[in-house]
Amino acid sequence: MNTKPKYLLSISLLLLATQFIYSQSKNLPEIKVSKNQHYFVTEDEKPFFWLGDTGWLTFGKLDRAGVDKYFKDRKEKGFNVVQVMVLHNINAVNVYGKAALINEDVSKPFITAGNNFKNPQEYDYWDHVDYTLEVARKNGIYLAMVPVWGTNVSKGNKVSKEQATEYAKFLADRYKNKSNVIWLNGGDTHGNEFMDIWNAIGSTLKTNNPNQLVTFHPFGRTDSSENYHNASWLDFNMFQSGHRRYDQDSVKTNFKEDNYKFALRDFELKPTKPTLDGEPSYEAIPHGLHDTLQPKWTANDVRRYGYWSVFSGAAGYTYGHNAVMQMFRKGDKPAYGNKELWTSALNSPGAKQMVFIKKLMLEFPFLEGIPDETLIANQGSRYDYLAATRGKNYALIYTYNGRKIEVNMGKIEGEKVQVIWYNPRNGQKKKIGIVDNNGTKEFQPLGIKEDGNDWVLILKSGK
């Protein structure tokens, strides 16, 4: 008479084991640093080109239907990373009215029992984060999560080192089995301020979950490498090239719009670590951010930042749009002059064009690529700059404005090279012919010389 309960118990245990194995097998591959330390690969050593989007306010402003729509769209457009704030503010409340913290204390997350995804009114802030992570996973997307946005620390010092450490332990424990989690410590903040807090968060996350990548998202025109390159918890560098024009900078010592300079500098640092532009000028945001009467950055600009940085050694690139980064909805108070709904902005030209840089880089042995300005015989400055990268049998050179490119040949193998023009606006190629791989040769892109008439010159070894 006791066999039936034992039988049912055995079946139940088997089902639980099967569900566990199935859930584990559905995890996304872990992302790690490549063997040469410059790029990212999956756990089976396949190249991983970081193509990110800034969906900063996803957790707070999107309901489940919005989460589903957003990640489905970003998957279709080729994005594989979304950067998001876990806590925008310490009084964070999501779209269902659920507070993230008890008494605005980061060491005390507001957690309720259960996570019934069938009824969003019954689950808490953290359950909604869990739901979002699951939707991202199903769409093959990694979430690069900022634990607490920098202003919560830098303005009023609302987070102590002790609170930050306890909070980081909570995050590390809750998401230890999530292979699609990457951590962005900091959050638009100066790296040389409150370093005890950022080091506490970074080291706690890394010590508890060594297989999850950790970096630091810095203030505009600065780089994580300036303060944390040698930190044991920092796996890769991230710079924020920012939203200002050349003439809007008051600081003479920074790189201004020349985001490729961050990538070139970081590429040479020791110990070697990957780097990327985690926040360039957003599409449809005013030049300089705050004056809404200024011109707005366009798809041309986000392409320029992408190719400039990637051809200069970056392991990927993060795109952003003014409306999407703030998940602007009807009735919201707009920031930075935005008037477009996030659902409409999903289909902005720049968002559609980002996939072409990813496809191009993965067409070649991406992991062997090195930036090489010596390919260029007629280097220019500002918008005339020509970014160049090469591997053993290929070279790629980017012009933002269709200016003539003079190439020092012989930098890749072979007596002959194929010449191809690649259009960053639509991903189309035009074969030019075959030339000798010696001397200096000139190549003239299609169209007239003007900003936004950008082209990639592809040189491939062989006939």
TrEMBL record:
Pfam families membership: Apiosidase, Collagen_bind_2
Boundaries of every Apiosidase-like catalytic domain copy: 34-367
Matches recorded under InterPro entries: Apiosidase-like_cat_dom, Collagen-bd_put, GH
KW DNA-binding (keyword) present: no
Record keywords, A-Z: Hydrolase, Signal
Span of the signal peptide: 1-23
Record flagged with keyword rRNA processing: no
GO function term, MF aspect, one: hydrolase activity
Residue stretches making up the Putative collagen-binding domain: 370-459
PANTHER family recorded: ENDOGLUCANASE (PTHR37836:SF3), LMO1036 PROTEIN (PTHR37836)
Protein's recorded name: Glycoside hydrolase family 140 protein
Source organism (scientific name): Flavobacterium psychroterrae
UniProt lineage: Bacteria, Pseudomonadati, Bacteroidota, Flavobacteriia, Flavobacteriales
